[in-house]
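User: Please predict the structure of the protein below. I'd like the answer in structure-token form so I can feed it into my own downstream comparison script.

Assistant: Understood. Taking the following sequence of 779 residues as input:
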Amino acid sequence: NVAVFGRTQINWFCVGYGSGGDVKAPYKNTFAVWLKNQKDININADVMAAYDEWCAKHVPDEGFWGHWPFRFEEMPLDIDFVKKAREKSNVAFVVIGRAAGEDREQKLAKGSYYLADDELKMLDKVCSVFEKVVLILDTGNVIDFAQIDEYGDRISAIVLAWQGGMESGRALCDVLSGKVNPSGRLTDTIAVNYDLYPSQQFGFKDYNVYQEDVFVGYRYFETFAKEEVLYPFGFGLSYTTFAVTGSVEKTENGARVTAKVKNTGERKGKTVVQIYVKKADGMLVKPARELVAYAKTAELESGAEEEFSFDISEYALSSYDEEGATGYKACWVLEYGDYEFFAGENVREATSAGSVRFDKKITSECHTACSPQKDLSVLLRYDSANSLCADLSQFSGKETFAEFKQKMDVLTDDEVERLMHNLEYTLENYGWKNRVVKAQSGYLKERIEKNMPTEIAQNKDLNVSFDDVKRGVATIDEFISTLSDEELETLCHGDLRMNSPLGAKGNAGVFGGISESLRAKGVPTATATDGPSGIRLTQKASLLPCGTCIASAWNEQLAKELYECVGDEMVEKGSDVLLAPGMNIHRNVLCGRNFEYFSEDPYLTGKTASAIVKGIQSRGVSSCVKHFACNNQERFRYVNDSRLSERALREIYLKGFEIAIKESNPLAVMTSYNKINGVYSYHNYDLCTTVLRNEWGYKNLVMTDWWTKKAKNPDFKGVDDNAYRVRAQVDVLMPGGSRVLGKYDGSTLKSLKKGGLKRAELQRTARNVLSFLLKLKKD
């Protein structure tokens, strides 16, 4: 018999706040609702009734945009009430809830990141009376676990339920009753306390320096601070146990890791096989572990086994050289040496599957892009005796560098670490230091001028409609030749405001054939709706689990199947474009929109996003992956500058997008609000053309997030604001007009008439928009 404490059981957080969760669900099976409907867990009716009565009298204030509550005040608990509950119940569930969201950062305060006083009092009283206590966390963000950890064995189990959408109560009851064996795994590292996370430059107005560089999340902790982790990346418990073994062999194009999983427990269940690599030491410093593959097992009976084979390419094992340390600047380089692979159920417990040796090789040539405009100081690892002794030799004064290096080269990494403790001088935070990433020029103006598109001669007398293009009797360029400059400009922005009358009620915006003249020529409209936790319209729609919850399944097939259903619902309700998935990296646990996103890891992020895109687009509608890129905080997101090395940008913050682009071909990409190394993403030619289109081969639509900032183009006089955007090949301004007046600024035509923006650039944008409309399977 179970007594359930905590008002969150009734005032349940199904999802986080803002556009990503504001879905009108047809119903919500909260925890309390489903506890009353299910038959597998005996519930203490007296405790439930007391909470029902108190919550009915203390209806919480839901707040308003950007000022929503992080949690709700708890019902005061009398110790005698808890003792009376214990007379009937031998188990206690304590439910604590949290929410953050868009424009609503989690705070380093009690009742947000930290437990509130009334929550601690509730835990104290329940744990003092009950021998078996299960703590259930209904949250979209990682919160502080240090206070929870202090309870030790007085808390028997912790269920990190995440925000599971309109069916979250049912799902949670199935797991707690044992009807379903849990198989979720953490997508983030849970550190001992907040101060130990490496991304301490967070939340500033003007800029944040990503000092942790490529050492984000577990990449930092597994390299520098294993002891500072409470629960490692990929961790999660089951009602059974598994054993994972692995082996590796070299292939023509990389490595093949074979992993065998056995259910060694007494109950059937699933687990996640995770494959990590420790890359060879070299001129580029590298994290101690990087996720390179994973798979969800089938439901295995006790004693049953399953085998997986993972092919990992040389490119996937490469590192990006931004400054030419390897001799190959702006290239992905596979450095010479041994690459050790690990297989297991989380990053900490994965065991060695063996090593393979690779020769040095360029796996992809790029162009310097989005690099820092000012020198940056970022984290550097002593990745080998080589790099360490280069520094130590400067201080010993007793031997030459060559002599010192010879002595150091024969030492193992463990011996090097022990030696460091005995040196007469102190290396700050031994084992790491800072390096300076130099500002670089990418010759942007010259490249843009060299790669200007060719203008299509206007032919307004040609009798070609867009329907002719659909039927294949005319080319898209022939149709574009019939468009006036005003029509070209119209195609580069949406229908000015949200909830356009041209689309389903409550839509986020409409673009395409938004003028009478374009519709007369057969150009259809496309309706965009907010996501990712469902379709945000005035009509009801399914409310899905939050992004972190979905990613925690580590199950691509399940994510694909879920969003196939969403695709069907989009067709039914009149949505052509779902503004989802959100796939920014969990750089800092305080980011308000982490619930929408997937993980601190780019590989898991990219694979989960790819599955969602495939699911949506299998129904003839469009996904729009967002926010491209480095949208890692909510506060000051409209003006903040994310300053980071090009290597960190490519290896961490763009990698997930790259995987999704190449594997699932989303029909649309949404840019972020923020700047990246001084340039707004929606004005960023290198981001949206050099990398996205030229290097990754993306051929589809790019749109802005809703509303943008004005900006002068530093390279081309008179190509400002929306002309600046079009030159970057960001096709559509959404929703199209200004936030206050709802009018388009006309800066594209103004620039065109003054000889700044080229007609060919507007025609290129028109081609991208019209090609997108052709790919939608609309009646």
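That's the full token string. Residues 382-401, 421-431 have pLDDT under 50 and may be disordered.
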